[in-house]
Structure formats: structure tokens, C-alpha cells
């Protein structure tokens, strides 16, 4: 049975990646693509790499245009989906790639985003372990409204949650530094995202600030058993279009050994096709997961400082956004979780 | 029916790309992967992006190890396949991604390569038009020994052959300049391919020389109807891992109009899924075909100089090498030509 | 004697580069820096790399603010300097890095730019040979109004003019393809200049069109002795912030030898510190001239097509713009031409 | 008075950068350049960007060839200078850019490097504050044997030492993550440094290991007042040829305020031309210091985790290596410390 699909925000980077992935999904057929400014144009004028959708034309992003589909993916700027989603068909599966429905705490919403709070939807990084056993994927089964996780939050949470759920690391003073590509910012026309500013340079931004990704990370770590986790989050823009390389460190609890660490991480992701812990001594590179729905984790214990260093690579547009959204939709609809998702990266 | 496949040279870039494509091919099953120095290692140690092949181990590149498969892909350095192939099972389909069997002229071989000449195999860029109608793909049907085309020759030939076959352009004084990524050179350890040499720089090489790609281009242009074509070929290494952006210009014959040019190119590739002519005013970017088996052509007539400018983008490792090899194998075996091949690029 | 200097458009890339060069010029002292939107900010807020100017504040770009200086450099968007310059002190040396005063033909201006024509100023790529002997630098001595050449026009003209002045090449059907970095476009906020669009890709633009650089190239080639030169010009954006690598080819006149070619080019630039012809077999890389006021030329004769291939590398912001402007000012003021200008690139 | 200079290892990246800087130094004249494999070649064949040294020829790296100069700079692979230096003229100033003479602890040498220990020379990052007042520069005055600091150690030490010397941060559990360009590895021909491996990817290496830079950092932090500092050090290769962006975090001692932090850092580097603390809210980019002898520091207090985050940008080849060596030589010889050194970066 083929399900009809609409993608809102189809002229952006996340929307384009959703379409690229959906083009290989056997159960979904994209019928409608919408945009704000570019409505009326052929999709391919905005996304010239999506040759298989040469017959689609962008229509305006309205509830009417999104109606009548089995599945609706929203790839809209933050703050744009909240209002729209209230008008969508209750029976359709709606997956929002934006942040509007991620946070369960209205206080966090007010503190980190502000503006109207539209309430939390089913949220889950499928592979994330939760306290007491199981994974976040269980929260997605049968859902009709899903808030897909943010790319940075997924990266940091996946890297460190195994240590939380196994009680091996301190939940406070988690320190993360992320090398990130500019595509995560979408097509926003700001000087800081111009090629001339990014090429040949490493550019940190919003350091020490109250990043919007932090409450989302904390939310997942609490599900993993933490009560009051604290996370330092420093993103550095580097000259690659895609990719997140998150270096996440946490203090080990007294007496924890490197073997216990490795065992905990391997247990947490045992059998997971899309989240893999590399053998001792190996570290992941973002190129290894480019275009793939895969997160790779390299693990080291730094005995001198008493910390575990978990380095995680993912493609912000795939496992970080569009792949995660499709994976979540698969789970919600009861399809095989891996359907239409690729595990192999495009390298070099 | 699943065909068993061996890939020789599986630790290199071309070999890795063959495997990435084959992982999505429903009719092929990779049973054997071989290497020279890295034999004995898990494939994934050399190709950490190929997660779906985690169970394969590299064995030595010998005729014995390659025996017993329905299809053998060779991704070996130039000069390495000639000897080996003589020992392979005559009944197997062998597709050589190297240059050893491409040239039909032993004189050209001696002039541009030198060393032992191993004879030409069935060669074809499937979509290339040939004089008198038809395409090079007809040369591949039923073949058991195929020399897959070189990436640079494919780019230049596909860009300009429609003008030759339609007798719209002069066959002499074709001028091509190519922006190319370094992955085309494989993993060769030369200073010129170090990241520090390539990053932030545009580096021409072997300018004005007798490039090995030229006789291969001439061979295809002769099939398209030229008798003595001459081609200037200037490659410029630029800081992108993959991709060829070929700017190919040829003098228009007297009186040829822009409309005739467009019509000739569109006719030549009408209905081709993998070679597409963009609408007037659009130009292709290599990012649009990254990871895809697609070549995109932008077309302009420069009236001031009386030339057509055909700009072609392809991914050197896919449409330029591994995708071309799989496409050829599909044709040779009578499978649907597009099986296992992706038309959508990974962008941005 | 120290001359007082104002730089208009100091918050842009060309303005910043002027300041970087002027910071090392012993005869100039920058007193005033102006901008449009960013007036009122410390210069260093817009140009954080210019640490030596930490005490300068941007003031508005007005004739009043530019008055009272010995030398005024204008680094404004095209079309912005024409009106302003009418109001500047006639006794000051004004060097315009924009296009407004480059073209001597009002017809060309109307055809390629349009809008009000403000008349031509003294224009010269100092090293360009002119018919009958001498160089364009002679046109700059003593001038008080100078139109600095455009970066692309300088690259193509310098590459091929020696063949014109020596009557070795045909003046028609000159074919040029340029790999260019995005900094030449300044800080314009267009999607095509976003890092995500440029990284990992080669992007041609405006192919076959009537590039604004063409009449400027023709103007210089006519000075070199051509009567009706025609030039095809194809720019390709590549992922490096700076640099132009121009591959320029021209048909050789019958009987011209490679030795004659080399001699002509070496004669044309004999003794020039900033324009150097590389030995046979060597080709320039843009990294070799990054940050330097140097243009390097590699030379080859492609006998098969009967063309000379001249490959020229320069830094679009230095030899292409700001260095050229300072060099011209040195000449106009009777200073040593090389003062404050660096011949060594920053590589790797 | 002009001092005669020899540069050993002049065909490598560090050697080339020494020469680029020395070309603008008014008191030094480079007379001799040496190499291992490339001896006999013109310097410019190996360093085509150094146009001003067109008349120099590489000679073999021997004590005899290095004799008779006032100043000798060594830019040799680690382990190569120890033996050589024993034979150099005791009266000459020798500045070693390698690691052989940096560590004062033979135990550390044995643990982190191994092989013969050649003893420590005068070592100093000039601006680093030392306990009890003053800076490391005092250790360099009048020295005749100087071990120039390593680039990574300089970056981390400069970022965090102000907190140590002012007793504001804990000396243990310092966590640093560095985005680094590949030029720091020199021209070593390893697969991991190929452009195809680096382009479009972020590649961590040697994570959690006992980096050779760590004892050098500890040595400087002890001079700043720490007794047993511990540092976690994670380097990530990113696609820029030069630059280090070090994110260094340390736990604040109880009660320390953001104002105290800012004051301590600003005091530590007050009046320093080459190490500057940016205003609140600003962060440095590596492009801002490209080609400059400048280190820029951005500062933030992350109250949630109780850490200071100091982000430091420097050019690994200039302030990290060759600029540091020249600055040290200036100090040792009693020249003005800033002579020949540039504070402005080449951006964009």
C-alpha cells in the first residue's frame, strides 16, 4: 500500500533532503510539495539535484494544500509550524522537523525560544536508551503527531546517554564541542553564512550562551535517568556543507573502568543499524556518514582527567533531520524501521 | 535471480564507490572483495563508510580469488588489470574500470600509455550518440568483457558529441577546461594531492600535454561521425573531493543557430534518465550530481566567438566510474539499465 | 612625507583588503574609513582581522567625510562611485576600484552596464604591454583620477596580451574559462553565495552571456594592437574564498613555434616583479599568490589544436583589486611602484 | 646591522613560512636554505609562492652548510634536530621549531616521545603569564638556544593560563577540543592527509591518547602556578589548510564571577600586540589570524556547568610556529619584539 505524502518547506535544505530520501522509499509517494516565496516554481528550479521529481511544482504552504495526505512532513523555519499544524487533518501522520513541538516544559520553551507555546508532540531519537530499559522509539509507535529531534541535540544525546543510563558518568559538567557544517542553518541569508566567511576558517558562535539545543538534550538525558544534567555546548562552523562531529565528554564516576564504558555503550546500541559504536582506537569522520542515516561513535577514556570522550559523527540533514523524520514515520506507521533509509555514507 | 559479484581493488576510492552502489542493487550480491596491500583486513577498516558490508574481509587480488563469480568488477590502478584478466573465467562478465582495455588503437596506446597492449574490450558510454543513429549502449549488450569509460573522457564526450553527430560544430579546435576533484586520482600518495596543497587553491596540471584522456575522447567523437577531431584538454584541481565540471567549447559551423544547437542536444539525450540537458539559462553544478549517476548539461551559444559552450557536471566516481560500470553491467546482462542507480544528487 | 588616505566602502571585502595593504605602506596613513550601513561602528567590528586599525571608526560615505585627504580609495558597489566622485576634491588622487569609470566607450557602457555614464578615467593594468612598445603603466603617471582594473579582466588580459602585441595569436576566438572564488562578489547576500551552495561544488554562472568583463578585456587587447578581438568568458565558482585561475587559449597564427611563444611572453613581462612567467612545464596555483600582488603565468602550446594555453593565477582581492589600486596610486604619485606591495603568497 | 640567517628544512611548510616572514624582516638576510631530499633544487621549485627568494638554491642539511650564520632556524621533523644542533656554532642563535628541546622533564620525554633525550633549551611563549608576575618572554632574552613552542600547546596554554595565574580556575579537568588544519602535519605522505580524506569532513584523531602536546601544556601551566594540571586534548582535522581554533574549558573555582574572569584575561594580555582578548560577546575565527602572528581569544562563562570557555584562534604556521620562532629570535637578540611580524590577518 502506498501512502500519499506532502512535504511543506520543500524548497529548503531540510525539505530537499526529505524528498531525496522519500524518492527511495517504497511505501511513500510524494504528491504535494509546498513553499512560501517559491510557490509556483517547478520544484527542480529550487532543488536541481532532485531529478526524479521533475514533474512536481511547488504550491503555497497552506493547510488546504497539505490536506488529504496520509503523511505530512513539515520542514519549516522554527515558529512557522505551530499555527499551521492546528489546522491539519487529525487522522494524518504529521512529522515536524522544526522545534515548535519538541519541548515538554513550557518554562524551557519560554526561556529558550519565547513566543506562543504549542505543546509537545511525541518526540524520540529512536535509539536513545531510557532509564529502566528500552529506547525512545517506543514513544513513537502509533503516534500521529511527531516532533522530530534537532540535529545537534541528537548528536550530543546519542553520544553520552549510554553513560547516563548505565550510571557510569556524572550527569553534571558534560562538555560538548561540535564541528558543524553550515547547511544546518538552512538558506538564511546572513553574512556569517556566506561562502567567503566560512571557507578556510573555523568559526565558533554563540559560545557559552543558552543554546536552544540544551533543553532538548537535557530532556533526553532525564529520560535516560539523569535528574539535573548540565551541558556546555560550543558549536564551531567549519568548511563542510554537511555534518556534525560532536566531541562530548563527561566525568566518569569513581572507579569506572574503560571496559565498563565500552560495554555500556555497546550494550546501549547493540543491534542498532543506524547507531554504531566503533571498535577501540577508531574514531568516526563526518564523511563516513554523509548522506546516510547513520551515527558513528568513537569512544575513549581519558584517564588523566577522568573523563569519557565520546565522539559522534552524523549528517545533520539525514540522521539529524530528514532521515530521523522518515525513521520516526516508519515507526509510527508500523513499517519496518529501516525502510527507505541508507546506512552507507558517500565517501570520499 | 541474484548474481554473485567480486570487486577487485575494493580498498580504493573507485572500489569503494562500486560497493556503495552495489549495496543498493537488487540483482547483485557482493561475495568477494580484494586488495593488494590491505588483504586480510576487514573491508570496513579501509572503507568505514560502507557499514552494510561489515562482514566482508579483504582477500588478495588474485585470479583464484576472483574466480567463481558471475560478475567481476576491476577497480585497479592502470596497468594492473591487463595481465590479470587473461586468467579470469571466460563465462563471467568482467567490467574493468581501468584504462587497460579502452583504446582500440594500439598506436594510441603506445603513444599515450606505453607498455604491453592488452587489446580493446567492449567500450561504451551508453548515452553517447553514434553516427547514423543509435547510441554506444548497443555496443555493450551481451558483452562479457567491458572497459568502462574514463571519467574525464565521458564528461567531454557527452558534452560535445551531440554537436558532432548533428554536424553542427567543427570537429577540430574543441577546447575543454575541467574543474576536477582529487578523488579521481585515487589514494596515490603524492604531495600534489595532500589536503594542504589542494585546500583554498585551484591547481592546473599537465596543461597542453598529451593527456591520456584525449585518444579516448577522439575515439568516441569518431564514433559520432568525426574523422579527425582535435581536443585541447586542461584539468584544474579544485577543493572538492568529487566532481567534474567540464566546460567544453566548439566552433559552430557557419549559419548554425542557437535553436538548432538546443534541438540537437535535446534530441541526442531525449528520454535518457542519466544524461539531461538543462533548460535555457540554467547551468549545472557538481553538487547537483554528487553521489548520483547523472550528468547534467547546460548549453549556451556564444555568438561573439561563434562557439557553443556546453558545461557538463558529473560525479567522477559515479557516472564517471562506478555508476558507469554498473550501468554497463546492467546492459550487458540484459537487466533494466537503471537498476540500482540513483538519479538524485546529494546536495547541499 | 606621509600622505593622508581615506577608504570608502571599508566594511566590504575590497575595502578591507585595501586597508590590509595600506597598513604596511610607509607613505600612506589611513585617517578615514567610511561605510553605508555600518557607519558608527568600530572598523574592527566589521573587519576583525585588521587588528592594527583598532582605533578607527566607520563614518558615513559622503563627499564631506572623504574631503581633505591626499588620496581617496573607493571600494563601492558598481554604480555608487559615479555620482560621489564628482564632488571630491579635484586635487586629491582618487582611485576607484569599481567599474564606473573603466570603459572609454559609452556604447559599451550602455550595452554592458546601462544607467548614467560617468566617463572614463585613467585606466591601466601597469604591466600590460601596449602596441608599439611600452606598457599601460605610462597611462597612470601623474593621473589624479584612476579607474582600477577589474580582477577578471586583469587576469585574462595579462594572460593573453603578450601574444597580441607580438602578433603571434589570432585576436578572435579567444576562449577563457576561470575558476574563481566567491570573495569577488563581495558581501552580497544571495543564495548562490551561501557556503552550503559553494562548498564541495563547482558552479558556473552566466555562461555564454555578455559578461561585463568582456569590453574591459577588449579595451586592453586593442591597446595591445588588436582591432576587433573576440573573447569567450566562462567563470566557474569554486570552493576557495580568494583566487582566480584563468585558463586562456588563443589560436596561434600559422607557423608560430613554441619557442616564439615563450620568448614573446617572457619579453612582455621581463623584469616585472608582479607578473612572472613560469619556466616551461610549470603551472601556477592560486595558493601561490594568495595575499600577494603577484600574477603567475604558466605557458603551453597545444600543437594538436594549434593554440597557446596561458594559465594565470592571481588573488582577486590583491593583484585583482586592492593591490592593483595601491600600485596605480604609487605610479600616479611618483612613488616606487612596488612600495607596500608584497610579492610572496601565503601558502599552503 | 643585518644578521645572516640560515633556514634548515626550507622545503617544508614550516620552513616556507619562516622564509615568508623573514622576507619582510629588516634585520635578517637569508643566506642559506637547506633540505634533505630536495637539495640541489631552486628553492622556488619547492616553494613557488616565495617569489622574492628566486635566487636561492637548496643545499643539503648539514652542520657545515649551517655554519657561519648569525641565526639558524631549524624546521626539521621531530627527532632530526637533536643530533645536528650539537655541531652548530655555539655563538650563533639557534631556534628550533621542532620538539626535540622543548621538554624540561626527561621522564616526560621518555613517556611521550622516546629515543635520545637532548635536553631542554630556553622555551617560551612570550606572552604567557608566569606565577608571581611577568611572562615567559623573560626566559628568552639573551638565549642562544631556543626551543620554539608547538602550535597546539601554544593555543591551549595561551587560552587558559590567565585563569591559572589568577587562581580563578581549577587546574585539573581542563578540557580542550581543537579544530585544526592539516598543514600542521607538514608534507607527510599519509592517506589521512590526502585532500580526498579531508575535504568535506571533520576527522578526529588520537582521541583520549597521550598527546605529545600535553606535557608541553602542563609545563607552561606549572610555570603559571599550577602544581599538577590535567588536560584533555582532542584534535579534529577540518578542511582548512591552516589554523587552530581551540575551545578550552576549565572549571571555575567557587564564587568566581564573569567579571573577574574577564579582568584576569585582559590583565594577562594587557598591551600585548599579538595576543588579544576580544570584547564580550565576540568570538575569534581562524580566518581573522590567517598569515598573522596574532592569537585572538573569545571568552565566555558557562554558568550552567560552572566553566570558563576560552576560544582561541591562531595560525598554526605563524603564531604557532614560524612567527613564534622569529618573535623569540627578536627577543633573544634584543631587537624590537614585533620586528618583521604582522598583526593583520588575510581575510576573507
Automatic annotation (TrEMBL), chains A, B, C, D:
Enzyme class: oxidoreductase
One BP annotation, GO: L-arginine biosynthetic process
Gene Ontology CC annotations of this record: cytoplasm
InterPro entries per record: AGPR, AGPR_dimerisation_dom, AGPR_type-1, NAD(P)-bd_dom_sf, Semialdehyde_DH_NAD-bd
Domain of life: Bacteria
Catalytic reaction(s) noted: N-acetyl-L-glutamate 5-semialdehyde + phosphate + NADP(+) = N-acetyl-L-glutamyl 5-phosphate + NADPH + H(+)
Pathway participation: Amino-acid biosynthesis; L-arginine biosynthesis; N(2)-acetyl-L-ornithine from L-glutamate: step 3/4
Main localization (coarse): cytoplasm
Subcellular location: Cytoplasm
Start and end residues of each Semialdehyde dehydrogenase NAD-binding domain: 4-133
Protein family according to the UniProt entry: Belongs to the NAGSA dehydrogenase family. Type 1 subfamily.
NCBIfam families cross-referenced by the UniProt entry: argC
UniProt name for this protein: N-acetyl-gamma-glutamyl-phosphate reductase
UniProt organism field: Leifsonia tongyongensis
Classification of source organism: Bacteria, Bacillati, Actinomycetota, Actinomycetes, Micrococcales
Amino acid at each position: 500500500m502506498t501512502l500519499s505524502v506532502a512535504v511543506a518547506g520543500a524548497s529548503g535544505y531540510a525539505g530537499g533532503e526529505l524528498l531525496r530520501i522519500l524518492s527511495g522509499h517504497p511505501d511513500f509517494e510524494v504528491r504535494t510539495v509546498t513553499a512560501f516565496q517559491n510557490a509556483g516554481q517547478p520544484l527542480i528550479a529550487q532543488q536541481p539535484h532532485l531529478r526524479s521529481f521533475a514533474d512536481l511544482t511547488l504550491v503555497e504552504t497552506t493547510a488546504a494544500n497539505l490536506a488529504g495526505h496520509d503523511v505530512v512532513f513539515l520542514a519549516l523555519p522554527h515558529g512557522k509550524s505551530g499555527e499551521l499544524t492546528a489546522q491539519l487533518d487529525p487522522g494524518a501522520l504529521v512529522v515536524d522537523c522544526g522545534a515548535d513541538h519538541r519541548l515538554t516544559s513550557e518554562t524551557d520553551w519560554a526561556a529558550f525560544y519565547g513566543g506562543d507555546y504549542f505543546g509537545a508532540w511525541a518526540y524520540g531519537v529512536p535509539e536513545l536508551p531510557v532509564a529502566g530499559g528500552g529506547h525512545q522509539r517506543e514513544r513513537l509507535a502509533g503516534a500521529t503527531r511527531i516532533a522530530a529531534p534537532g540535529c545537534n541535540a541528537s548528536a550530543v544525546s546519542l553520544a553520552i546517554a549510554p553513560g547516563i543510563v548505565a550510571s557510569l558518568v556524572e550527569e553534571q559538567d558534560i562538555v560538548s564541542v561540535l564541528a558543524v557544517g553550515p547547511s544546518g542553518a538552512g538558506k538564511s541569508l546572513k553574512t556569517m553564512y556566506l561562502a567567503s566567511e566560512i571557507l578556510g576558517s573555523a568559526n565558533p558562535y554563540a559560545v557559552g550562551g543558552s543554546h536552544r539545543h540544551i533543553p532538548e538534550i537535557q530532556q533526553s538525558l532525564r529520560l535516560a535517568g539523569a535528574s539535573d544534567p548540565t551541558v556546555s555546548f560550543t558549536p564551531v562552523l567549519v568548511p563542510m556543507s554537511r555534518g556534525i562531529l560532536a566531541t562530548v565528554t563527561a566525568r566518569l564516576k569513581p572507579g569506572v573502568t574503560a571496559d565498563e564504558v565500552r560495554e555500556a555503550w555497546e550494550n546501549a546500541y547493540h543491534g542498532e543499524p543506524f547507531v554504531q559504536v566503533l571498535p577501540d582506537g577508531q574514531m568516526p569522520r563526518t564523511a563516513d556518514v554523509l548522506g546516510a542515516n547513520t551515527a558513528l561513535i568513537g569512544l575513549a577514556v581519558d584517564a588523566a582527567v577522568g573523563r569519557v570522550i565520546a565522539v559522534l559523527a552524523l549528517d545533520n540533514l539525514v540522521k539529524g533531520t530528514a532521515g530521523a523524520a522518515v525513521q520516526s514515520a516508519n515507526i509510527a506507521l508500523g513499517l519496518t524501521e529501516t525502510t527507505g533509509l541508507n546506512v552507507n555514507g558517500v565517501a570520499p
